[in-house]
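Today's session is about reading a structure prediction critically. Students often jump straight to the picture, but the first step is always the sequence itself: look for stretches that repeat, for charged clusters, for runs of hydrophobic residues. Only then move on to the predicted structure, which in these notes is written as discrete structure tokens rather than atom positions. Here is the chain we will use throughout the hour.
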Amino acid sequence: MRSSTVASVLVLMFSPIALAQSTVSVIWNSDYDTSSTGMNTTTCATVLDQSYPTFGAVPTFPYLAGASFVTDSNTTGCGTCWSLVSDVGRTTVVVINGAADGFVITEEAANDLTGHHQFLWYNVQANATQLDASVCGL
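Below is the predicted structure for this chain, in token form.
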């Protein structure tokens, strides 16, 4: 019994900290693919612009996203780190903007999430898990 408790503690110690989880719709487009685009073009500009003036300044670039839970510049979702897992792949992104529904991610993140078939799957269902910001280098 004691060895299983130790094993459980070790697994928890070396696993990313999951803060919230849900199933979401994920689409991709090229809105966040250009590293020189200014953060001041996003809903999260007031929260992120000082630390990350361009998309390329975010440690996870090009793994960026818009998310439907970001509704204004004071949303606590700005700058959060998320793991997205589909039936065929996974990716980790930083939320920098709002979205109409679910998540909108970059082409490279979509490649990872769809097993490099993002052109075949415009809309993917994925499990979204919020991670500790440190997982994304924030």
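Discussion point for the tutorial: Strands lie at 18-28, 64-67, 81-85, 90-98, 103-105, 123-131.
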